[in-house]
Amino acid sequence: MGEDGERDLWKIPREKVMGILVEHRPEPLDKDVEDKLIKVVREMEEESLKTSRFKA
After folding, report:
1. Which of 11, 34, 47, 51 is at 20 to 30 A from 22, Cα to Cα?
2. Helix, strand, or coil here: 24?
3. Residue 52: what pLDDT?
């Protein structure tokens, strides 16, 4: 398969991926799940700062 055929081979999947990236709208998280994720991230950030060699 020549170079043009290779481009054609990737054209359709690339277009599908781009369509998904442009059009996909995920459902919002439940408030409880969002709150828990925020809490976990904050705890991990605090723990990371405690153990980091680079103090802020």
Report:
1. 34
2. coil
3. 78
